[in-house]
Amino acid sequence: MVRAFATPISLVWDVPPLLDRNFFFPFSAHLCGLCGKNKSGALHQHATRDFLTGIEGQSSMTTTPFDLTGRAALVTGAGVGIGRAIAETLAAAGAFVGVHCFRSTDAAEETLSGIRDAGGNGMLLRGDLTDATAVASVVDEMTIAVGRLDILVNNAGGPVERTRIEECSLELWNQIVATNLTSAFLVTQRAIPHLRASGHGAIVNNLSLSVQTGGANGAGPYAVAKGGLQVLTRTLARELAPEVRTNAIMPGVIETRHHEQFTAPERMQEYREETPLGRNGMPAEVAETVLYLVSDAARFVNGALIDINGGRYLR
Questions:
Q1: Which residues share a beta bridge with 245?
Q2: 314 in a domain, yes or no?
Q3: Residues in the chain with pLDDT < 50?
Q4: Judging by DSSP bridges, how do beta strands 121-126 and 2-5 pair with one another?
Q5: What are the catalytic residues?
Q6: What is the CATH number of the domain that holds 299?
Q7: Which residues constitute the domain of residue 301?
């Protein structure tokens, strides 16, 4: 299921310096006025393309290496936490963002609403990324609507359930691997032709600190799956360059719903005390690193793994 959220646009607008959080992208012409269709009905394909291409050639634009104007980004698992922050940050930098979710539809709609309120644009994409048919639908719906795909952020994933290796059933093992590794493989494979053609192709894979620790307190299967994603990052960096750059991030303890579900409050406090910077990270700090990696500022960065943990674990 895909929903397009049409935001009024104009074909001439200025982009302030992108690392200033206090700016908006003004728009003035109603999209549905271009075709007369109900905004809640069929996808406004031509209007979406205008959002990406209509400002080309405008000399009034102020650009920086972090400017994503005219580019399209797909962020998986963008309903909450780190995924939401990434989607909002890329949209604020000028990208049209595909906000993906599977079960968290209401949360993803909130993400997209926040993007629109800040003057950005995007669309909602829903599908089970462990299913190849659903993945094809998600990627194809976005590329048909937008006409391109420049950025892929494989953020979706999670521990599913904590268990020790010796107690892990094959069914649970397969579910954890599918959720964290197979899903990224399927989405990336479907997206590769579009990323190659974009001229700005960039992939960022979201790993986990458990790759470095081995997965404490029953997170072993999750760590193994994320370790596979780390190797996939290196493989893609070799296979897809120079048309597409592939990098990975390894967040430490970030204050998100993930830890509300899987980590006890007293342990979260211990994490803060164990971190040299004296606190845990915030989703926006992860998102700003992703912005760097997908932007032209990182045009010579390929196959890298960036730690975002406040110095808690040092290589």
A1: 202
A2: no
A3: 1-47, 54-61
A4: antiparallel
A5: 222
A6: 3.40.50.720
A7: 67-308
Q: Which of the 8 DSSP states describes residue 129?
A: T
Neighbours of 92 (CB within 10 A): 23
**Residue at 25 is within a domain:** no
Residues 5 and 121 sit within 8 Å (Cβ to Cβ)? yes
Q: What are phi and psi of 151, to 5 degrees?
A: -135, 135
The tally of domains found in the chain comes to: 1
Question: pLDDT tens digits, residue range 58-99?
Answer: 433 457 999 999 999 999 999 999 999 999 999 999 999 999
**What distance in Å separates the CA atoms of residue 55 and residue 14, rounded to the nearest whole number?**
9
Task: Report which of 95, 34, 32 is spatially closest to residue 66, judged by C-alpha positions.
Answer: 95
> Are 200 and 150 within 8 A, CB to CB?
yes
Distance from the Cα of residue 23 to its chain's centroid: 21
Give every strand in the sheet of 2-5, ordered side by side. 2-5, 121-126, 96-101, 72-75, 151-154, 201-206, 244-251, 305-308
In a domain, 198, yes or no: yes
- Residue 194: helix, strand or coil by DSSP? helix
- The answer to whether residue 31 sits within a structural domain is no
